[in-house]
Write a structure and sequence with these properties.
The structure is a single chain. The protein has 500 residues and is α/β, with parallel strands linked by helices. Helices cover 30% and strands 13% of the residues. The protein has a domain at 252-396. α3 crosses α4 (213-224), α6 packs antiparallel against α8 and α8 crosses α9 (335-346). The longest helix is centred in the middle third of the chain and has 19 residues, at 298-316.
């Protein structure tokens, strides 16, 4: 979310380098890497190959119709138990790297939870099953289920089962409904239906987690259905107020390195003044105008790329990237060098094409109608940026769909977290611009917020101090009523580009 493509996380690739060889490890909030599970070209794609006979994706060669592969007596019939839930379709996969039995499922949920006659659709989920009596960790990305069989940090902390649930209007989880049925209440009701159904099997405590937009959805679920979970861990999640939240402008003056930010802003100025025509010409060589209709052409694309540079540096790289930046007033500065910076920090013009935008319509719709968008520092770019400049979300939204903004939801959510909520842990990276969207819950003992001082959007519990990590684990232990094992090192998460 945000005013430019500044919130996107991209897959690392051959072009993702700054001059000097800085590898751009653009990651999700729980880590980064390449596990081969997730495509990186858009939210609308599904995991693996959609082959006949499969639930959602992957090869059919790994399915079973009831074999237990030597599991214990207690766990041997988990497939049959899942199959017995009305509305569930389930396939067990044996080609997964999951630490436990692994299942792909769809569960029928209402197209519209306010209309019992509106029909239903299949919500795609994946399940790592360890023990029927272990805690269940419910995870969301905020997008399609690209985590698939990747085990998130909270699951490893509690040694639990993990259910990864896709969001409506993404991936293959598409309701037969109009866009107005994409809002926090409907998404939370989907989740509540899932918890109610699978809770008939898994009676141990349920925990909710997610990162960024997925972490927001975790909190929204807890807001609407606080009895569903014993606790929530929300990573790097912004709760944006309005369509131009000024808290984010303040972040760039107060929370990041001043010298680095000054240099970034100087580069923005030269890119949109002395080098503007040359950079636009280079972009024209890379993509045609027909590929940029949603954003408004090559010059608008350049503005968007330039505006997102500081955001992406602080979101995805942090201080380490500052030393790789060229000097804006260097007389030897070249178009090629500036293109390298743009490609390195933003992924380049391919990311603002119509094709790239199509997969993120659900994200943009929510940003415009309910979840808000940050404001960016623009004072230094007076006369260089169009008054009605086209930012990323403007191009990403569904074409021709009305986008009325609800100004009431996020203030109400802020108030609830600050005064009434309980059993929530927030984890933020202090350099990450999205941390400006945190909620001040300092007066509410039921909510605790932690910050990694040099953390970015990949911050997780293991990014914190040993004392803070121990305090979090003690809180989680109290939630589930059991001691926790030692936390193993965090593995690489699927490496995929998402807006937030």
């Amino acid at each position: 979310m945000g005013v430019v493509m500044h919130l996107r996380i991209r897959s690392a690739g051959p072009r993702d380098k700054l001059a000097g060889g800085l590898c751009l490890a653009l990651c999700l909030a729980l880590g980064c890497g390449d596990d081969g599970l997730a495509s990186t070209s858009g939210d609308s794609e599904t995991t693996g190959s959609d082959t006949e006979g499969s639930v959602g994706s992957t090869e059919t060669s790994g399915e079973t119709s009831g074999e237990t592969s030597g599991e214990t007596t207690d766990d041997a019939d988990i497939l049959e138990l899942l199959q017995a839930i009305p509305g569930v379709e389930v396939v067990e996969r044996f080609d997964s790297d999951a630490d436990g039995r692994f299942f792909e499922m769809t569960y029928e949920v209402a197209n519209d939870h306010d209309d019992a006659d509106a029909g239903s659709f299949g919500l795609y989920m994946t399940l790592i099953h360890r023990d029927i009596d272990a805690p269940m960790v419910y995870y969301t990305t905020g997008y399609r289920n690209y985590f698939y069989d990747y085990e998130v940090e909270l699951s490893r902390i509690v040694g639990g089962n993990q259910l990864s649930v896709e969001k409506r209007f993404t991936g293959i989880s598409i309701p037969d409904a109009d866009w107005t049925k994409l809002n926090a209440a409907q998404v939370a009701a989907d989740g509540h239906a899932v918890v109610t159904a699978l809770g008939t099997i898994y009676s141990a405590p349920w925990l909710r987690t997610g990162a960024s937009l997925g972490g927001e959805d975790a909190v929204y679920h807890h807001y609407y259905y606080p009895e569903d979970f014993a606790g929530v861990v929300s990573y790097v999640s912004p709760f944006v107020l309005g369509l131009a939240d000024g808290r984010f402008i303040k972040h760039f003056s107060d929370a990041v390195d001043a010298d680095c930010q000054t240099q970034l802003e100087a580069l923005q100025v030269v890119m949109l003044s002395d080098f503007r025509a040359a950079l636009v010409a280079e972009l024209e060589l890379q993509v045609t105008a027909e590929e940029l209709t949603r954003i408004g052409g090559h010059d608008a694309a350049l503005q968007t790329l330039v505006l997102e540079m500081p955001w992406n540096l602080w979101q995805s790289f942090g201080l380490s990237a500052c030393s790789e930046l060229p000097i804006a007033d260097d007389p030897e500065l070249s178009v090629e060098e500036l293109l390298t910076v743009l490609d390195g920090l933003t992924g380049g013009v391919a990311g603002v094409t119509d094709q790239a935008f199509t997969g993120y319509q659900a994200y943009a719709y929510q940003a415009f109608t309910q979840l808000g968008r940050p404001a960016l520092p623009l004072a230094h770019l007076q006369g260089l940026v169009d008054d009605d400049y086209v930012d990323l979300e403007t191009g990403m939204g569904p074409v021709g769909v009305p986008l009325p903004f609800d100004p009431t939801f996020l203030p109400a959510l802020h108030n609830w977290v600050a005064t009434e909520a309980s059993d929530i842990i927030f984890v933020y990276g202090s350099l990450d611009p999205w941390s400006a969207g945190k909620i001040d819950a300092s007066e509410n003992p039921g909510v605790v917020t932690y910050h990694a001082p040099t953390g970015i959007h990949a911050t997780h519990i293991q990014s914190l101090s040993a004392d803070e990590e121990a305090a979090i684990e003690a809180e989680i232990s109290a939630w589930i009523g059991a001691d926790l094992g030692l936390l193993a090192p965090l593995d690489a998460a699927p490496d995929i580009r998402v807006p937030r």
